[in-house]
Specification:
Layout: H1 6-12, H2 17-29, H3 36-42, E1 50-54, H4 60-67, E2 71-76, H5 79-88, E3 93-96, E4 111-116, H6 129-138, E5 140-151, H7 166-175, E6 179-184, E7 198-204
Parallel strand pairs: 1-2, 1-4, 2-3, 4-5
Antiparallel strand pairs: 5-7, 6-7
């Protein structure tokens, strides 16, 4: 998760990596499918796609996508999260950085897909959200996709109330030159309807 700046740091103190990894390890051991986001993204791209996991956290999604044959780069602002990612997949590319300064990390553009899962957008530092969306759009190739997952109510957020609405998010995407292609209520592809507590959105960069 992460890539998040102030709200994430306020929640965790920057020391969440090991606890976060253990949480998903327990879910996997109990039989839960912890790879829904990776499966969702893999279905949208061709083999060996270039994927940016923005706010990659412990690398759970990026590592799974690499196992599926894709070329993944993970970026996160939380060193404790990246420490777990680097330990679990030392040959993958993991970058420490704030998503609001993504343009300073030296990334080569041309990604087929940029992913911001796990409430990355709602947990960004207040006021940085439009810039983050612009930076993510800028690293995409023409026709590339921005895939996001975000809670829309307290039940789906580690916050008492949602700091971001879908209307605001869509406005930032439009401002960055992106077009909404699809929206779902879950990573399993359940239909989205107004009032859902979670939204998985697929925006695309124009081909021309």
């Amino acid at each position: 998760m992460t890539g998040r700046g102030d709200r994430w740091a306020e929640l965790t103190g920057g020391q969440a990596g090991e606890a976060y990894a253990q949480r998903f390890a327990r879910l996997a051991e109990s039989g839960h499918d912890i790879h829904g986001e990776a499966a969702f993204c893999a279905a949208l791209v061709k083999p060996a796609a270039r994927i940016l996991d923005a706010g990659c956290g412990t690398g759970r999604i990026a590592i799974r996508l690499a196992e599926l044959g894709h070329r993944c780069t993970g970026v996160d602002v939380d060193p404790s999260m990246l420490a777990v990612a680097r330990r679990n997949a030392p040959t993958q590319e993991w970058l420490l950085g704030d998503l609001s300064r993504l343009d300073t990390l030296g990334l080569n553009p041309g990604f087929d897909l940029a992913l911001a899962a796990g409430n990355v957008i709602p947990l960004l530092a207040p006021g940085t959200e439009p810039a983050v969306v612009r930076h993510l759009a800028a690293v995409l190739r023409p026709g590339g996709l921005l895939v996001t997952g975000m809670g829309l109510d307290a039940a789906h957020l580690p916050l008492p109330e949602p700091p971001v609405t879908l209307a605001e998010f869509d406005r930032w995407c439009t401002g960055a030159g992106l077009t909404l292609r699809q929206r779902y209520a879950t990573w399993s592809g359940d239909p989205y309807s107004p009032g859902c507590g979670y939204a998985v959105s697929v925006h695309s960069r124009p081909t021309m």
